[in-house]
Amino acid sequence: MAAARKPVPVAEAPSRGRYFNSGNGPSIVPIDIGHKEYMGLIDPDTAFWSLVKKDRLADTLTDARFISAYKKKSEKFADEMHMLRFGLKPTAVYFNSTEQCNLNCTYCYIPGDMRKNGRHMTEKELLAALAKLKTHFRKTMPKGRLPQIIFHGAEPMLNRKAVFRGIEKYRDDFQFGIQTNATLLDDEAIAFLTARDVSIGLSLDGHTAAIADKTRTNWTGKGVFEKVEETIDKLKGYHGFSVICTITSENMRHLSSMVDYLHARHVPTCLLNIVRCTLPPSLAVKPDDTPSARHFLKALDRSRELYKKTGRKLVVANYANILISILAPTARRLMCDISPCGGGRAFFALAPNGDLFPCSEFVGLARFNGGNLFKDGVDAVLESEAFKMVTERKVEDIKACGKCAIRHFCGSPCPAEAHETNGGMKATGSFCEFYEEQTRHALRAIADGKDNDYLWDGWDKGTRTTFDTHML
Fold first, then answer.
1. Has this prediction a pTM greater than 0.70?
2. What is the mean pLDDT of the chain?
3. What pLDDT, in 10s, does the model give residues 393-441?
4. Among candidate residues 359, 348, 281, the one with its CA nearest the CA of residue 92
5. Which residues contact 2 (CB under 8 A, 6 or more apart)?
6. Bridge-based pairing state of the strands 38-42 and 49-53
7. 3-class secondary structure per residue, the chain
8. Mind listing the pLDDT tens digit for each residue in 128-182?
9. Between vectors from CA 267 to CA 265 and to CA 269, what angle results, nearest 5°?
10. Taking 60 as the threshold, does the pLDDT of residue 472 lie above it?
11. Which pLDDT score, from 0 to 100, does residue 6 have?
């Protein structure tokens, strides 16, 4: 038997360091944020950050008061980041009630044959699945907090009767949402969903048919812009309403016009999501990093211009989440831009036959099938090798990312994309510069006091300041 290791006496324990970036002192990395007056200081391990005037950089890094204040809080930063990365349990399910879709979008991550000939979940199966999920979440979630069920793609409205039956029966047990291409949302469906406070996400890739219909058509090649526009107009004034615009080479030059279009129609929230390159067809519309970042930031600034002009916000949620990940990491709402990502940790996806995947992006990739809800149960699936491939993917293990100061504001998404397109879980995603420029823009917005102009009103209710010397 090996001898027990002798504890190190307190007097012999290593010093916590008197200086930044040497000995046992903390590592603080200066980064250029593209601001004329400020630059960033970031601890890559804890995501602690500060903004410092360029002419005060040397003074700040040698300021004993700053070092002492940071060291007193460093454990708290490290604990919060560790909890966020490794201490979460799923609270949401992307519920795919059908494999079929009435559209054949260029970049879809669900295989074409599945979308064309796949199966629906029967009403009986859907209700049984919700019952099992209710039982699971009762064991894992605090009393009084409801888990989320998002009816998701392919196209949930093709299985409308079963989906609406599930919402009606379990409306007191879950917060429901639906992500739809909007082509099947008639007046009756809209009335049903809005009366039950179901969040509704629509998809639209451009402000005109000429742009939107390049990537989103039905199986005969006919575009659906007019129908989606009609539905957007019908949802005007509904608080739980958002639009996803997928950024591709076909529309990236028109993102500012898309912001104008959505703002004019009183859309409260949108996501300008860079395309996921998980399956080969999406590579045909993959935009280049540099121009897509440039056009995205231009669209962000346009959203702020419209807010200052009208007093009404169009929140670009994926960017807002980056801002929040800097301002209050544990308050972030989306979990794609952290490592490990939210797949299998904050949420998981359910296929129509009961199979479970870490995220909908993996549906159709058999290697990431963690088991079956009806046969294996959720707890066993969460510990499966298929799920661990995703939940154990850490940005520190990715060669190109391990040295990056902003790695915890990005997370090198997306693991499905990295695995399928770039060679494995230790590969990067496809849009490093796109995420890098978002972070730099966010830090500039904070430096200029513009950050709240991009965020939901009241986003910080219930949050607290951990360290209050971020501007030096």
1. yes
2. 91
3. 999 999 889 889 999 999 999 999 999 989 999 999 889 999 999 999 9
4. 348
5. none
6. antiparallel
7. CCCCCCCCCHHHCCCCCCCCCCCCCCCCEEECCCCCCEEEEECCCCCCEEEEEHHHHHHHHCCHHHHHHHHHHHHHHHHHHHHHHHCCCCCEEEECCECCCCECCCCCCCCHHHHHHCCECCHHHHHHHHHHHHHHHHHHCCCCCCCEEEECCCCHHHHHHHHHHHHHHCCCCCEEEEEECCCCCCHHHHHHHHHCCCEEEEECCCCCHHHHCCCCEECCCCECHHHHHHHHHHCCCCCCEEEEEEECCCCHHHHHHHHHHHHHCCCCEEEEEECCCCCHHHHHHCCCHHHHHHHHHHHHHHHHHHHHHHCCCCEEHHHHHHHHHHHCHHHCCCCCCCCCCCECCCEEEECCCCEEECCHHHCCCHHHCCEECCCCCHHHHHCCHHHHHHHCCCHHHCCCCCCCCCHHHCCCCCHHHHHHHCCCCCCCCCCHHHHHHHHHHHHHHHHCCCHHHHCCCCCCCCCCCCCCCCEC
8. 999 999 999 999 999 889 999 999 979 999 999 999 999 999 999 999 999 999 9
9. 160
10. no
11. 40
Q: Between vectors from CA 243 to CA 239 and to CA 247, what angle results, nearest 5°?
A: 155
Q: How far is CA 444 from CA 54, 132, 195, 261, in A?
A: 13, 46, 41, 26
Token pair, residue 118, equals 């796949």
Cβ atoms 355, 372 nearer than 8 A: yes
| Length of the chain counted residue by residue | 472
Please give the span between the terminal C-alpha atoms of the chain, in angstroms, as a whole number. Answer: 55
The span from the CA of 47 to the CA of 41, in Å, is 10
Amino acid at 355: D
